[in-house]
Amino acid sequence: MKDRAMNESAVFALFGNPVAQSLSPLMHGAAFAQMGFKATYSAYQVNDAADVVHMIREREIRGASITIPFKETVMGFLDDVDKSASAIGAVNTIVNRDGRLKGYNTDGPGLIHDLAEWIAIRGKSFVILGAGGAARAAVLALIQAGGTPVVINRTVEKARALAESFGCRWGPPAEIGRLEADCLINTTPVGMFPETDRTPMETKFLVHFPCVMDMIYNPVKTRLLRDAEAAGCVIRSGVGMFVHQGAEQIRLWTEMEPPREFMRRTVLERLEKNGGD
Ligand code: ATR
Prior knowledge:
Elements: E1 10-16, H1 24-35, E2 39-45, H2 49-58, E3 63-66, E4 80-81, H3 83-88, E5 93-97, E6 100-104, H4 107-116, E7 125-129, H5 133-144, E8 148-152, H6 156-166, E9 169-171, E10 183-186, E11 211-214, H7 223-230, E12 234-236, H8 239-254, H9 260-274
2'-monophosphoadenosine-5'-diphosphate binds next to helix 5.
């Protein structure tokens, strides 16, 4: 990165399609302001992954968040990809170091940070619902943290492929009733706003899981979490993971520790105020 005049703002951005619903601009903007770090963070809706890299270079963007649908496709345009992101097959963060673009994935570290505030991971068992990018990040991070995940997914081939690449167990949805684990984690979008009446899991089996986490953060309390609470489970929303994955991005971009609690309050306030989107 070129030396910047002291009064020049560092430029950060979110790339995806769509991006209008994202809470990242609100959260990162609040974090930078609270840190006294002079920065802008803007959201760009783009049409293909090549545009992401082109804009980062052209506008001298120092760091970027990458969201759907470019997390996988952008990897081919980067100079370097971190080992974990490469194993996951998805990048949600880009760091621009003097024009050299490197991709990272902060979903796994974000999840572990959040879970560690809540439950023990080492020696514990986890059922992961879903087998997409978020599930891959979760499985890798849980194994690295000493947990034992089992993957359950609608498309069994994807569950099998994920499990085989990380060496864990997997199963079809029909197996969920026969499983017990310390914690269930939903990584699917089922139950996300506006389809808030949906759940990825039959309620009667929730008693097999003392702790239930949903990666969805809008709504803060999904139908899965409401059902789990009614079944006596301890519940955790996706807000904490969202905050920590964003905080890990700021650490990668600035090498400074962001105000995580302040970020959480900012996000929660907005979600509670809007109640929907
Ligand atoms: P992300 O990057 O957020 O993980 P993704 O890669 O699109 O998103 O993965 C979404 C996961 O949610 C997939 O495992 C998907 O199941 P399939 O592999 O069968 O497609 C799962 N998912 C999405 N909608 C679902 C639904 N209605 N019921 C069950 N699983 C669903």
